[in-house]
Amino acid sequence: MRNKNLKIIYCYSIYGENYDKYYMPLLLSIDLLKKNNFRIAICTTHDEEKRISKYFSDSISDNIVKMLTFNEEWHQNNKKILRYLVPRLIEGDIYCYRDSDSLVDTREIYFLKSWIQRYDNSQCLIFRDHPLHVALILAGMFNCKHEAAIKISELCESEFSESRMHLKNPYNYDQKWLANCIYDKFRSSTIVMSSYFYYTGEKIIPILPSESPANFIGAQYSESLNKERQKEYFKYSKYYKGSLLKIPYHKFFRNLYGFVRPSIILAIIFKFLINKKQ
Question: Which of 84, 130, 210, 217 is deepest in the core (most CB within 10 A)?
Answer without folding.
Answer: 84
